[in-house]
Design brief:
There is one protein chain. The protein is α/β, with parallel strands linked by helices. Helices cover 37% and strands 21% of the residues. The chain is built from 16 helices and 17 strands. The strands form 2 sheets. Strands 1, 2, 3, 4, 5, 14, 15, 16 and 17 form a 9-stranded mixed sheet that branches. An 8-stranded parallel sheet has the order 6-7-8-9-10-11-12-13, with helices on both faces. β7, α6 and β8 form a beta-alpha-beta unit. The longest helix has 19 residues. It starts with 6 loop residues before the first strand and ends with a strand. Bound molecules: N-(iminomethyl)-L-glutamic acid and fe (iii) ion (FE). Fe (iii) ion (FE) binds next to loops.
């Protein structure tokens, strides 16, 4: 769709998630309107009557509904081949994630399938998953590598991730997760040395990602090895994020916070020192209730302590074949409340504003100057998105300048 002019959308309530616009934690504007400029950016956001005199080329009325920022899914592994349903079933029959990883299952199994999968198939599967996320309101999605574990396949995964955005109509934020598991036949040290010497510069020169992630765990990498990787990555200008404290407390979150990392993710076993370090550094806690649910975790992330310390909490799907098979942000919000103890307001902020902070992107709020990445929902209140996660409610999304109609009725042009 070519950008033809400036337009206004009204006949909606807004949840802006912006500081200066609207009331309450969601930034609510009842009977609001937005004006979108010719660049696809929000020019004004506010009450309808305040924006009625702004001259535009077209005016649309939604006839009701709630307009929110498109959801930001700040943690996914959307690019992969193969299926691990048998591992989920085995876990539910008593096996543990760690046992399965030691017995030839787990991440390494997806690595074998991904290495063997041609680009086109890898891309088509990832595009289908991204479209499913968009059909539940996502307009920005982070995608990690990490199922290559050799230089060529990690680069290939990032190239495929980069092709998903335009095809699925979402904005993709790619992340290098080369330190996801120790490749077969190598030591952790030796692989991280190669990542630092070969892969980071290759990602930089090809412009494939600006973020680096790793997995600190007994079955993956220790804190010192990852710290070495992260210091090298940071020196090259990469931003940092980390799978931390998922299966045990390793002091990993404090490490990434001290290095200025954007986020620490999972955090079931995060301790008080980790909370304090994250609060001090402004590192976002990305909570992943899908993995918590599918792994039947018993230990919860310390949500009350994070809240008290003022650590921003994001919520993401962590979609991946081994621990979080979900493709619905609304379900993650529901589980964030029922399983992890977030409030409905916190969950919604976690899927918008805080997710964007975790990724360092300017979507996730409705405010002048921000991209018009929008989701129009037919719900009585924003809380209904969290309460009833599979009610058919998404009417339209606008993402990266392109609109998509998900269900009727169409907007009415009134001017
Ligand atoms: O976020 N924790 C490590 N990484 C993924 C799982 C990857 C897998 O099992 O394939 C996660 O849970
Ligand atoms: Fe993950």
């Amino acid at each position: 769709l070519a950008l033809i002019g400036r337009w206004r959308l009204q006949g909606v309530h807004l949840a802006t998630f912006a500081d200066a616009v609207g009331h309450g934690p969601l930034g609510v504007v009842e009977d609001g309107a937005v004006v979108v400029d010719t660049e696809g950016r929000l020019e004004s956001v506010g009450p309808r009557e305040a924006l009625e005199d702004v001259g535009v080329d077209a005016v649309f009325d939604a006839g009701g509904g709630w307009l929110l920022p498109g959801f930001v899914d700040a943690h996914t592994h959307l690019v992969y081949a193969g299926d691990r349903s048998d591992e989920h079933a085995a876990r539910w029959a008593g096996a543990s994630y760690t046992d399965l990883a030691h017995r030839g299952g787990g991440i390494r199994r997806t690595v074998a399938a991904t290495r063997a999968c041609p680009d086109r198939e890898l891309r088509e599967a990832a595009v289908r998953r991204a479209r499913a996320l968009r059909a539940d309101g996502v307009t920005t999605v982070e995608i990690k590598s990490g199922y290559g574990l050799d230089v060529a396949t990690e680069l290939r995964m990032l190239r495929v991730a980069g092709q998903v955005g335009a095809r699925a109509g979402v904005t993709v934020v790619p992340t290098l997760l080369a330190a996801h598991a120790v490749p077969d036949g190598r030591s952790a040290q030796d692989w991280v040395d190669e990542v630092v010497a070969e892969l980071l510069p290759a990602v930089l020169v090809e412009g494939l990602a600006r973020r680096v992630d790793a997995f600190v765990a007994g079955i993956a990498f220790n804190v010192d090895t990852v710290a070495r990787l992260f210091v090298a990555a940071r020196a090259l200008g990469f931003e940092l994020t980390l799978h931390a404290e998922q299966l045990s407390n390793d002091g990993a979150s404090a490490m990434v916070a001290r290095l200025g990392g954007r986020s620490a993710d999972h955090l079931e076993h995060l301790d008080a020192a980790g909370v304090a370090a994250m609060a001090e550094a402004g590192t976002v806690a990305v909570l992943l209730p899908g993995a918590f649910e599918a792994l039947r975790e018993a230990v919860r992330p310390p949500v009350a302590a994070l809240r008290r310390a003022g650590v921003p909490m994001a919520v993401a799907t962590d979609h991946n074949p081994g621990t979080s098979p979900f493709l619905s942000m609304r379900w993650m919000l529901h589980l964030a409340c029922t399983q992890l103890g977030l409030t409905a307001d916190e969950a919604l902020c976690g899927a918008t504003r805080c997710g964007a902070v975790a990724l360092g992107v300017d979507t996730g709020v409705l405010a002048a100057g921000r991209p018009a990445d929008l989701a129009l929902w037919d719900v009585p209140t924003p809380h209904a998105l969290v309460v009833a996660p599979d009610a058919p409610a998404l009417r339209m999304t606008w993402s990266a300048g392109r609109a998509r109609q998900h269900r009727a009725p169409a907007l009415r042009r009134i001017g």
